[in-house]
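Form 12-C: Joint structure prediction
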Amino acid sequence: MEEYPEEMRSPPVSLVAVAGCPELHQTVSTHLHSLQPPINSLALPDLSKISLLIASKPKDDQIPRPNPDGILKRDWLLKHRTKIPSVVAAFFSSDCVSGDPAQWLQLCSDLDNLKAVIRARNIRLVLVVVHSHSKDDITEDRMLALRKRAEMDSKYFVTFAQNDESELKQSLHRLSSIFAELANTYYRDEGRRIKTRIEKKIYSSVELNVRYCFKVAVYAEFRRDWAEAIRFYEDAYHTLREMIGTSTRLPAIQRLVEIKTIAEQLHFKISTLLLHGGKIAEVVMWFRRHNASYTRLVGAPEAVFLHWEWMSRQFLVFAELLETSSATIQNISFLVGSAERSLTEWEFRPANYYQLAAQYLKEKRTSLEVAVSISETLNATDSSAESVVPSTYVGQFARLIEQGNEFVMQPLTDEEYIHYAISDGKRFQDSFEIIALLKKSYDYFSNLKVHRIGAFCGFQMAREYYGVGDFSNAKQLFDGIASLYRREGWVTPLWEVLGYLRECSRKQSMMKEFVEYSLEMAALPISSDTGVQSSRKECGPAGPASLLQKEIIHNEVFGFIGGELGLTETENKTDLKVTGDNPLHLEIDLVSPLRLVLLASVAFHEQIIKPGSSTLITLSLLSQLPLTFVIDQLEVQFNQPACNFIVVNSQQAPSGASGVDSHRVETAPSLSLSSNRWLRLTYDVKPDQSGKLECISVIAKMGPHFTICCRAESPASMNDLPLWKFEDRVETHPTKDPALSFTGQKAIQVEEPEPQIDLNLGAFGPAFVGESFLVPVTVTSKGHDVHSGELKINLVDVRGGGLFSPRESEHISMDNAHVELLGISGPEGEDESDQGVEKIKKIQESFGLVSVPFLKCSDSWSCKLEIKWHRPKPIMLYVSLGYSPDGDDSTAHKVNIHKSLQIEGKTAILISHRFMLPFRRDPLLLSRTKPVPESDQLTTLPLNETSVLVVGAKNCADVPLQLMSISVEADEDDIGMSCSVQHGSDRLDPAIVVPGEEFKKVFSITPKVNLPKLRLGNVCVRWRRDSGTGEQPGSTESSVLTKQILPDVNLELPSLVVSLECPPYGILGDPFTYYIKVQNQTHLLQELKLSLADAQSFVLCGSHNDTIYVLPKSENILSYKLVPLASGAQQLPKFTVTSVRYSTAFQPSNAVSTLFVFPSKPHFKMVDVGEKQTESLAAE
Amino acid sequence: MIVCVAVVGHQNNPLYIQSFTDADDALKLHHIVHCSLDVVDERVNNPKKSGPTLNETFLGLLYPTENYKVYGYLTNTKVKFILVTTDLDVRDADVRNFFRRFHAAYVDAVSNPFHVPGKKITSKTFAETVSTIVKSFGLSSAG
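Section 2 - Result
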């Protein structure tokens, strides 16, 4: 597009001329230029200069010449844009107008001259009188005379005032609107004038028709009448197209060149205008038509390159047009959706056109090369191309001949023209142009992520690079493209690309790449029937993709790696060869394209073996190379280097020296690999170390200095061969045993040696909450020495599952605190301090680690784990011993042995308690009389009275326990003062409590301080396992203290206390006194009603019913005399005390009012009652 | 005239590609078919662009090159059919008809129990059927 002249590329702008008063020109032209649309102005200092600018018409336009020399004049457009104004504005200062007659005459003559000049061209005239002073006053007569003289409408007679800013602005505004109007009129009239010629067909030749249409269109453009411009450009274009067969004006080749050049210009104009109007779809359609109507106009065979050049330029210019206006085309998709279906989105993308431009330029280059070679063989004189210049008509060339003092244009013959064109064409380097075009296209497609089309552009680009000898650029591009084709399995294009790559690396003397590309090509899945390409024109340096070609490449590369052939076939001295100084090593990994060339599949026949035993390994090799080849030596490498071995071909001379001496050398009957046939080799492997044994790679050696390292693959997880996986062929298994092909692995697990150590956990039976439970652990060696042994202990909640690792235990410690690993004590006789500092000992709540000292065979070592339960909970104890049977510390040799034991944690002692009131003494506690439904269930005790607390300790365990002591201990001293707790002896003789038995102890409690709530303290039971049986594996000697908090009690001051007093027993017929004592502890007088019922076993003396008054803080005693009438346990007479004030009644229970009556006075043997008291209670 | 037909598999790999020209432009046709896959991808990934062709197997004109027109077809198993023709004036109905018959032939070929899905189609019968369909292309419109 840049090669078009400026006047073509930009829309035309109206032109006016300003003459006279040069001091105003700057202001006026700046103002005009800033208008919308702008107006260009020519400034002339003097009116007389106008005739210099506008020369009189060279020829009379009214009588057109019958046969013009060309279609369009080269400078016509430029002339109208820069030279011929549409309007001339003559500026006169008011002094001149109103001045003396001489001035006036001068003015008139200038005006006449001007009129004469512009009338011939219909240029409009504007007269401007510049008022230099405000006072200036031109007489009306003068003005009128001037206007008459100029023969013009008063509208175009302007006075220009410049006194102040606003006046100046107003004047400029008026002036510019007049200019715009007149310019418009001028261009319209000019256009109309020519249009009538077209309409009336006043033209003698088609050339003129085209020219007129072009002119009308340009005038319309001046007026910004785009629709008319397009219409006439199209008319011109169509007329021009029709000319092709008919015109005979010029020699054939030059005629076509001229027509195409003009068609190009017209097309450019139309496209620009259409794009300007935003009609994208129409532009594309128009371009397609343009392309279609000219693409076949190849022209004479010797000038065919001109056609391709022209075509290429069409595409390039169109691409540039689309690209520059693409900012306005945001929504291509929208356009496609609405436009007709015949357009695809690709036609809106400039990249497409760049690519095609490159394609045509390539055609041009080819045909130019042919033309050049022909012209060189003809050996025409070079001078004929000289002094050829573009002639006055667009698209024509002529020879400039100096005749005397002036130059004359002389028409050319076609031969001369072709010669000129060829020599002109030779100046350009088309390849770089092509690369530049393709690069644009490539970048564009890459940005759009359109990889395949981008790759095609890249391929063409790389071919150009290859053509100009820029191999590194070419190789880089080809590599990218090859990976795309490999991925998608497009073999034929891949073959082509690889062929180029092979040649690139050959040219760059890159030996390794050359071999890699050659091998890959030879292994491509190309069967004999695909790619029957007869000629070499289309295909690259690799030749046609065929089986034969593959074999040629195969032989060549094997000759090369064998050191027989050099890299280049020339007799170059510096030819590269594979030699001892220059060895070649290839790596084939799991994603390499060279897997086609050599694939190594390795399968162990077993999955797990014992250390020291041997297993079979099958090594399978597959190659897709077309011809059979022989491997000299195979080296199989493992992750345990001791297992590495070498396979040599038994047919060859035993060259064991070539391998490393330490490795095992096996022989194979044949190591030849034929196309698509597995070579299967099976050998023994005997690993010594435990752990994983993995085959890493197989190194094949071919020829003296060439090796391929092939990564080993497991048959079970082997990927399909790239490219070949799409071929319809029989799949074969890498191993003979098909099951092994599906499951075989390249790695095998070598087991640890069998542990010869006993690990014994000695504990049994449940553990009890609170005690330190000891678990003896014994390590006994039965054949292995124990080196650097480590004992790991884990406590795991049985319900919780998983093992607690040391790190996790921090989080779980809250839950797991119920059971705790307290410590690990060493073996008997060994003190903690004796264990050296280097011994590891690490104990956490649920994890422990302790080191085991060196043990010889049949030695043993033991320790005790001390575990404490805080809550009843079953626990899993895991103990694992890791050691190495040999002296070295390598972890590979570690042997591990695991043991686990479930231990229940149980509660041994269940503590219960009960409060009782003293015998036959009943305080009135008001809170007891009132039923309070949801009151706290606290026991209420009378204040200042002695209550009885019975504490029971029940053995819930399975073993007998010894109770050491039971006591009630206050938490805090101050509360301890508030009540007194009394009991018998603090220490018990260790009482044996068998399972299920309950031991009770009685305490008496007297609260002394009036508190609403009294904390009584803890019941502490001290116990231990009964050691009388002799076997007590887990328990310690020390006793266990079990504590339980007694519930709080309420205290209340009783208002009345009723107590009964009677002797402990009665004797038949012997009278005794029965006292009923009522104690009033209040400050109020208490009225009590008392009634006594008769009892049949007693004779009663006293009142049956009575009302008594008890004074405050005093006691009333009622006494009855009773005589027992019957022996045995007899019911005393029942009495009822009713307190009027509290509306409560008291009646003693049956147990309280029962008395044993002896028939006669009994005789008791008084023995040590105080000593045996506890025993009798315990037996209760 | 149809110059090339192709069947392209899931991984955009060619399953069957056959050119019907005497000239040695097989490689060029390979490139054209391969490039047209980009357009198929774009059509399939941006269905809004294809508008009314949503859920339709026939993808329409993909890619007008200078001398060829490329049409596409996508089966419901996401296998692509590509047709390259030199005819500049092709009726959509003809192309649709062609693809319908081609699809039927393809279904027959892959229904062969000995055919492994995803592998190249090497059936001779298929090749013959395709060549018949190709020869009869456009005749219905003329008749």
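Section 3 - Comments
Residues 2-137 of chain B form a domain with the Beta-Lactamase fold (CATH 3.30.450.70). The beta strands of chain B are 2-8, 14-19, 58-64, 69-74, 80-85.
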